[in-house]
Amino acid sequence: MLSPAILDRESRRAFDAVKAVLGLPRWPRIPIRWNRRLRRAGRAIIEMPAGGFQSAVIELSPAYFAVYPGDLYGILVHEAVHVGLAILDEPFGHDEGFRRACLAAGGLLHSRWLPGRVYVYRCPLCEGEVERRRPASESRWCADCADEAEAAGADAYAADRALVLVRTEFRGPEAVDDKDVTIQTGGEAVCTLDPPSPDAR
Ligand SMILES: [Zn+2]
Ligand SMILES: [Zn+2]
Question: What is the CA(141)–ligand 1 centre distance, in A?
Answer without folding.
Answer: 8
